[in-house]
Design brief:
The protein has 261 residues and is α+β, with helices and mostly antiparallel strands. 24% of the residues lie in helices and 26% in strands.
Length: 261
Amino acid sequence: MKALWKGSISFGLVHIPIKIYSGTQTHRIALDMVRKKDKCAIQYVRVCKKDGKEVPWEDIAKGYRKENGDYVILDKDDFAKAAPEKTQSLDIFEFIKEDEIPSKYLEKPYITEPSKDAKKVYALLREALRKSGKVGLCKFVMRTTEHLGILKVEEDAILLIQIRFEDELRDPEEAGLIPSDIKIVKKELDMAINIIDQLTDTFDPSKYKDTYKAELIKMIKKKASAKPGAKAPAPRRRKKTPEAKDDLLEQLKASLAAIKN
């Protein structure tokens, strides 16, 4: 793995030199845009909306659009002044219980790795976090952007979980149609809970695979090996879903019966 960040974890007067690695990896299939008739690759160009002419990189600036449509141009000095002070430290400023953090705040995991001479103090922090049942709330700067995060124990590692600032979350009430005063019939509620109980299991992430990606790879291989001019097989028809019934209780009973069968 390639380190994304080098610095130290700091709590009190203790400093632990570390490296940070991404805790996730993506497996997206790279697809290019091509012209259908001759498979010519499509190239994007930077074009002025007013005159349609291509604009070279040296003539391009970043601008903030005002309400009247005019732009405020920002240069490198402006971004440098607004950027947070660059620091190579994960400063723990508070310890909290992890279950106090709603899941909607959790964003991205990173793996922290101590330097060779910091293994003992890294292990000390890990065991202190484990025994206390708490996580360390910290701030850090990565790629000129300040982030909020928590340091938590996962097996033998201390993970840095990037979390969202409160102003990054939208209020669910903005959706407009979220019900708040709907009366639920007890029979319907009991039946819904029964369905939940029937489908309850222990979480095992290894059971869940990206089936779309696997099917797409199969399709690509099949098309790549097909002879020129060969007719593509007709797509499989999806089974029709049964028509929804008007009676909610009947739908719940049918759902429960289908699970048991």
